[in-house]
Amino acid sequence: MSHFNANDPQNKSWIDIPSDSDFSIQNIPFGVIKKPDGQVVVASRIGDKVIDIASLFDLGYLSSLPFSKEDFHATSLNRMMKKGKAACSTLRNRIAELFNEKNNELKNNSGDQEKILLNSSACENLMPVEIGDYTDFYSSIEHATNVGTMFRDPNNALLPNWKYIPVGYHGRASSIILSGEPIHRPKGQQKPKDDEPPVFGPCKLLDFELEMAFITYDGKPLGESISTSEAEDYIFGMVLFNDWSARDIQKWEYVPLGPFLAKNFASSISAWIVTLDALEPFRVAGPEQDPKVFPYLEYSGNKNIDIHLEVYIQPEGSDESLVCSSNYKYMYWNQNQQLAHHTINGCNINAGDMYASGTISGKEKSSYGSMLELSWKGTQAVKLNDGSERKFIQDGDTVIMKGFSKKDGVRVGFGEVSSKVLPAK
Ligand code: MN
After folding, report:
1. Are residues 140 and 122 in the same domain?
2. pTM (global) more than 0.85
3. 359 alpha carbon to ligand 1 midpoint, in Å?
4. What is the mean pLDDT of the chain?
5. Does 305 share its domain with 415?
6. Which of the residues are catalytic?
7. Distance from the CA of 317 to the center of ligand 1, in angstroms?
8. Is there a single domain that holds both residue 308 and residue 252?
9. Other C-beta atoms within 10 Å of 14: how many?
């Protein structure tokens, strides 16, 4: 077993890694790729190179680890994740060790390097996990306050349950798509005027939601719960998450059972899952929770994570414009609390399940994580670099989200999630 520490800020690689790369030697994320020869394998990423983990295994570099060939010659990470936290943590440490400048095992074997290292531009990223279930939370107090202020009452913006319950709903896993895949503008019922009947047609108020999602390992049997202190043993890693939203469809349909067709036409994720292990050095304290939470939601230690987030809109044929800078550390309810709440009734979880944070807004206007908030319900236009204006997302626009953590000269990032909006079918 390797006792190497992949998180050591002193680690350097024998691979050339651009200093602004999200995929430093301290990251070692996991994904699934199609190689130039058509093979689909489990992979990692370092700088501009993809690491073929299946070949690493086949060539004997992972022989002391509790994995088998089928775990890496696979079309998803689920089989690997079923080995659990301890095994996957050791795997990441071992890969970091092999690419460390002081380790000669692979460094001195150019024949093996040719089989294991691929140019990222020559590989196609595939969906990294088979997502069985998907849950979307609503855990940013700034976002919930903004929405409550716009649609209900500025003096009672938060509903009475919000500070007691990490509010969420069960979403749809089938329409979660990978970065790079375009979406079509959804169609549906809307009710633009209060005193007139509803209309049917393409959504006019198409929006993004800046979110992050975590992915779990297998949990406990039905009927048991995961505590806030156990939560990290069940969380594999995180991705950037664009929870596409049709605001006009949402407004008409959401009473009384909540989000439905306004949310389930597509959500886009970034391709590389950054492990919770790699994010540990970037932990920070969360906001104070007042009123005091129920005991099952209490936690100790720093459970928020400092992840800088950006959203860009790129109109057809133009450069991208930054429209939002936010941070995952703003979350009122942290992941540990979300998972503890999700399982407190005995609900079971499985390897590959995905849990999105809810729109991540900060206090400043420039940190609002949706066009709904940035344009304040369509009353204020957002200016783009090419001189055009947006209140919501137009056909031909590409929405790009980026995210990274940085501390002590170490950068651990997510790359991006990028999706273009095509006209309604
Ligand atoms: Mn959402």
Report:
1. no
2. yes
3. 6
4. 97
5. yes
6. 143
7. 29
8. yes
9. 16
